[in-house]
Design brief:
The chain folds into two domains: 38 residues, no CATH class; 130 residues, no CATH class. 51% of the residues lie in helices and 10% in strands. The protein is built from eight helices and four strands; from the N terminus they run E-E-H-H-H-H-H-H-H-H-E-E. The strands form two sheets. The protein has a two-stranded antiparallel ribbon with strand order 1-2. Helix 2 packs antiparallel against helix 4 and helix 3 packs across helix 5. It is globular and about 45 Å long. The N and C termini lie far apart (64 Å).
Length: 195
């Protein structure tokens, strides 16, 4: 293959057309951009999103949250791997807020920790909100579940499954315990929280 630089691979657009030569890195970057354009943040292909929602999700996905991650790791709040996972799920949570019209309660303490760290970077957070939502997204502790954690979880999980599919381990750690039944004498049932 004379005339080709090392690391370049010929790519044919389709039979009979001239061959384009792109470096492997350029081809990978192009494929990444294409897949992200179709499914930012891993949105399920069957999700029907309008252009505005897709733009919001892309803005959330592309936004540089490395200062937030670095703060979480440097402070010892999270290990690097856990900070990466929690930051990704924070992006997905913001995606839920961008797509669904109702407020969705934050159900994970770890993802909430990322949100708090993000808010501490006031300019960064304000810029993220402006790009993703067109306005500041307030974090109101009054919307946290007071008594009905199960209802808040169910609402969150329903929205998450519609947009992304199954919830991952980070979210599952926050799932409220299912009530279990214990048999008593005379076939009476009582409910108690399971572990």
């Amino acid at each position: 293959m004379t005339g080709e630089k090392q690391g370049e691979t010929p790519l044919a657009l389709c039979p009979g057309e001239r061959v384009l030569r792109l470096s492997v890195l350029e081809a990978r970057e192009q494929a990444r951009r294409e897949s992200r354009r179709q499914a930012p943040l891993g949105v399920l292909p069957e999700s029907r999103l309008d252009e505005s929602q897709l733009r919001s999700l892309a803005a959330i996905e592309d936004f540089d949250l490395s200062p937030v991650r670095e703060r979480l790791v440097r402070s010892g709040a999270m290990t690097p791997g856990w900070a990466d996972e929690a930051t990704f799920e924070f992006r997905r949570y913001l995606g839920l807020r961008a797509v669904f019209p109702m407020p969705i309660t934050m159900v994970s303490p770890d993802v909430d920790e990322v949100w708090h760290a993000c808010i501490l970077h006031t300019r960064l957070y304000a810029d993220l909100c402006e790009r993703a939502f067109g306005q500041f997204l307030h974090h109101d502790p009054d919307t946290e579940p007071n008594g009905d954690r199960r209802a808040a979880w169910d609402e969150f999980e329903g929205a998450y499954r519609i947009l992304y599919g199954e919830t991952g381990p980070l979210w599952e750690m926050s799932r409220p315990a299912q009530p279990r039944r214990a048999r008593l004498t005379q076939n009476q049932d009582i409910e108690f929280a399971g572990l």
